[in-house]
Amino acid sequence: MKYMLMMHAPGEGWEKAGIGTWPQEDLMAHIQFMHRFNRELNEAGEWVDAQGLASPEYSKTVRAGSTGAPEVTDGPFPEAKEFLAGFWIIDVETTERAYELAARASAAPGKGGVPLNMPIEVRQVMSAPLPEV
Question: How many Cβ atoms from other residues are within 10 Å of residue 5's Cβ?
Answer without folding.
Answer: 22
